[in-house]
Structure formats: C-alpha cells, structure tokens
Design goal:
The complex is a heterodimer.
Chain A: H1 9-15, H2 20-42, H3 45-61, H4 74-86, H5 88-94, H6 96-101, H7 115-131, H8 137-148, H9 153-160, H10 164-178
Chain B: H1 14-32, H2 43-48, H3 51-54, H4 90-98, E1 111-115, E2 118-125, E3 128-134, E4 148-151, E5 171-180, E6 186-194, E7 198-205, E8 210-212, E9 214-216, E10 219-225, E11 230-237, E12 241-245, E13 250-252
Parallel strand pairs in B: 5-13
Antiparallel strand pairs in B: 1-2, 2-3, 3-4, 5-6, 6-10, 7-8, 7-11, 9-10, 11-12
Classes of the chains: A mainly alpha, B alpha+beta.
Chain lengths: ~190, ~270
C-alpha cells in the first residue's frame, strides 16, 4: 500500500518557494477557513470568495519573504485576510487580472446547499455583524480571530502585532461590552475545518 | 446565544475548492515563467513608474546609485555561499528601500536572495532586470539599507514585449558585475534567467569554489565577495544535473562611488 507522509505547513511553505503544487496543497488545507474568516470580516459571501483568492495570491507573492511562526500557515493567512478585507477594493484592483482568470464564483455551496440556505446564511451573518457593530475595529478583529476562527491568543497576538495581554484584554472588553446583547440571533454551526 | 457562537458560513464544497486550487496552481505556474507582478499589474503602471528615468536603450541600460561610508572593517561579515533564511522583516525592509527607486515602485522582486544581513533583489521586466542590493557595507542609510542598483528593468522603447525563451535545463546569465563596497572590498553579482524546469543553480568560480544561487520566478541571482569570476554553472532540474560553461562579459563598476555605470560591454 502506498503511503504518504503528511507534511506540516512550514514544510509546504518552504516547498512553495519553488513549487506551485505545494502552494496548492496549502490552499486546499486552508481555503475554507480563510473564506469563513473573510465572510465574517466583511459580511459579504460573494466578496469573501474573491478575497480568499486574493489572500492566497498575496501569500504566493510574499512566500519567499515570509517565515512562518510555528507550524501552521493559518494565522499568517488570516492576518493577511484581515488586511485585504480592510482594504478590499485596493486588494481586488491589485489582482483584478488574476481574479478574472479564475473560475467564476457564486457556487460556494455544496450540491445539497441551495440558494435558500445561502440567503439564510447571509441574513444570519449580517445579524451577527450588526450585533458586534458597537465594538471597536480592534475588538471586532479579535472576536473574529479568536472567538470565531479559533486562533490562539498567542497566534492572534502575532497576527495583530500586539502583546498577548492586549489580545486578552480586547477579548475581555468585547465580552463585557456585549454582555448578553447577543442572546438570540445566531444559531451555532460547526467551525470551519482547515 | 452569546458572542461565543460562531456565525455560520456556507461551507465551500470540495468541488469548488478543487476547481479553484487547480486554476490557482495553473495561474501561479504561469506567473513563475514570467516576471512576477507584471501579469497582475497593467503595463501602463510600469510606464508611469518612471521608465524614462533610467533610459531605454533596447539593450540593458544601467544605473548605479551608491551612498558610501568610510572603511568597513568586516565588509561582508555574515555572508554565506548559500542563501540564508531572511530575518524577520529583512526582506520587507529591503524591498521598501529598493522601491525608493521610482523605476521599481510598481514591480515586485522576481528573486529575493538573502545571505546573512545582505539582501539582493532582482526586479525583472521582460528580459531585462535591475539588481538592488542592500546591506551594511553597501550604503550609508539608516540601518545600512541604502541600496545599490545595477541594470535597468524597463520596457523596450517600442513597447514590444520580448518573451524570455531560455532553453530547458539551461540558464541565460544577464550580466556579471564586478563592484566594490564602500570600504573598497571587491564583490561580484551575477543574475539571469533560467529554463522553466530548472530548480537550482550553483555557480563555480575560477578558484573552484561554489556559490549557490537563489532561483525563483524564472530568474536566478547570486553574489560573493572577491574578484573571482563565475566559470561554470551546475544546473539542477527535476530529472538531471548538468554543467554549463559560462562566458559572461564582466562589467566593472568598482572604484569610488561611480554614479552611473554600464551594465554590459565594459569588460
């Protein structure tokens, strides 16, 4: 029986310096998580599709100048996603030609995932983002990174380039500020796998 | 329900992921065969970026911008014959420094070669390139990052685009620069294009020593202290290793602070 060793992200990232196929493997691993993060950052499912591609194109562009901290590329990818989402129009402009050559979006759902579910998800997502709209941008970032995307406090600190204590305090303030105000609209879902 | 609840997002299907992954890899593979950024940026940005500032001669043009310091006792301390992993922020700082040259402002480096504290970036456009080196002995700017530039990455005057066509398993050196650091210590720089299947390039110098080049995006680059020229190249592909004789005209730009120097033809 043929067996394959599972390479960690750091090994793939190094190989990606010269091998687009290794980079494609990173995409396969993390595209879902990056997409979910972008969707929760922007509240726009269609925009999130394009931004996901932008994140990986940006990662490819910078693959030789970035050294991963730890074994997972996901924190770095989410940090990049945060930045491209914040400057989405500029990011899209930069990679407009490359995005134009990619397959058309609009089919994020699996076969059984119909348009109604997408509309419902968009509505729920919008409600969730409205619920945290009263938080500062920094607090919203840590909510998405730590509470919604499962990034550790330490990795979030690297992504945001702030001390771990700052991440903890932002999370605490976000919890405090929201209190029980979110006590209804969102139904839970399993966290996107990476 | 609390803030801890994760807002649901429709999960991307495996088919969607696979389709995008396939196209992304194809896109990146194609991008690897041409200068980075060029296909993702409108060519007019290159023109607007100050192409005329360096002159377009059809062949390679050259500029040399040097900020000199006094003698550096250990001019190339930390240099290594093989590329090293860049320190955190090293390449970002180098890129930012190099992009002060308006010609490069709209380009991303095709090769980023780091050897200890030194960073060499190759900015390629069509079949020409500009090499930018940053590091302590090369300049006087803050943190020693004032860069030195060799060559001119510029579109041909006609606007025509020459597609690089380097034979498989081969390299095509652009130039060999013989220069001197701020303290007068000699060093050489070689860059050029590689065939699509080339995965590694090592340069063998006249004295038999070997320098491992950095190879990416269809280009390679290496530099080393001293006056030894590059004699041959050991070229590695996925299936073979070959040796290619090199006969690269050497451009001497040594001496004290030459403001502009030709990149080829002044052997």
């Amino acid at each position: 029986m043929e067996t394959h060793a599972i390479r960690d992200d750091a090994a793939l990232w190094r190989e990606a310096g010269t091998d687009p196929t290794a980079f494609g493997e990173l995409y396969e691993r993390h595209a879902r998580a990056v997409y979910a993060f972008c969707a929760r950052q922007t509240g726009d499912l269609s925009l999130a599709e394009d931004l996901t591609s932008v994140v990986f194109l940006e990662a490819w562009r910078r693959r030789r100048s970035i050294e991963l901290n730890g074994t997972s590329a996901l924190p770095w990818l989410l940090g990049t996603a945060k930045n491209v989402a914040r400057n989405s129009q500029r990011s899209l402009r930069r990679y407009r030609a490359a995005l134009g050559r990619l397959p058309p979006g609009g089919s994020t759902a699996s076969a059984e995932d119909d348009a109604i579910e997408r509309v419902d998800a968009q509505r729920t997502l919008t409600a969730a983002l409205e619920a945290i709209a009263g938080l500062s941008r920094d607090q919203r970032d840590v909510v998405n990174l730590v509470l919604w995307s499962g990034v550790s406090y330490e990795d979030a600190a690297r992504v945001l380039d702030v001390p771990v204590g700052t991440v903890r305090s932002r999370v605490a303030r976000a919890r405090q500020k929201l209190g029980e105000s979110l006590a209804a609209p969102v139904t839970s879902s399993s966290k996107e796998s990476s | 329900m609390s803030i801890l609840s994760v807002p649901p997002v429709p999960e991307l299907s495996s088919e969607w992921i696979a389709a995008r992954q396939h196209h992304l890899v194809r896109e990146l593979t194609a991008a690897d065969r041409r200068p980075a950024r060029q296909r993702w940026q409108p060519s007019k940005r290159l023109a607007a970026g100050g192409v005329g500032a360096v002159g377009v001669l059809g062949a390679l043009t050259a500029i040399l911008v040097v900020s000199l310091v006094g003698n550096t006792q250990q001019a190339f301390a930390g240099w290594s014959a093989s590329p090293t992993t860049p320190a955190r922020g090293q390449l970002q700082a180098a890129e930012a420094s190099c992009q002060h040259n308006p010609t490069l402002a709209s380009l991303a480096p095709s090769v980023a070669d780091t050897r200890g504290p030194f960073s060499l970036l190759v900015y390629a456009a069509n079949d020409t390139s500009t090499v930018c080196i940053t590091g302590v002995p090369f300049g006087t700017g803050q943190q020693g990052l004032s860069p030195i530039f060799f060559g001119g990455a510029a579109l041909p005057a006609s606007g025509a685009v020459n597609s690089p066509s380097v034979a498989a398993g081969a390299i095509e050196p652009e130039s060999q620069i013989a220069a001197a650091s701020a303290g007068g210590q000699a060093y050489r720089v070689v860059d050029g294009q590689v065939g699509a299947d080339v995965t590694a390039v090592s340069l063998v110098l006249d004295d038999g020593s070997s320098i491992e080049a950095t190879t990416s995006n269809g280009w390679f680059a290496a530099w080393w202290p001293g006056n030894q020229g590059a004699k041959t190249a050991n070229i590695t592909t996925a299936t073979a290793s070959t040796t290619q004789p090199l006969n690269i005209p050497t451009t001497n730009v040594g001496g004290e602070n030459p403001p502009v120097a030709p990149r080829q033809g002044s052997t």
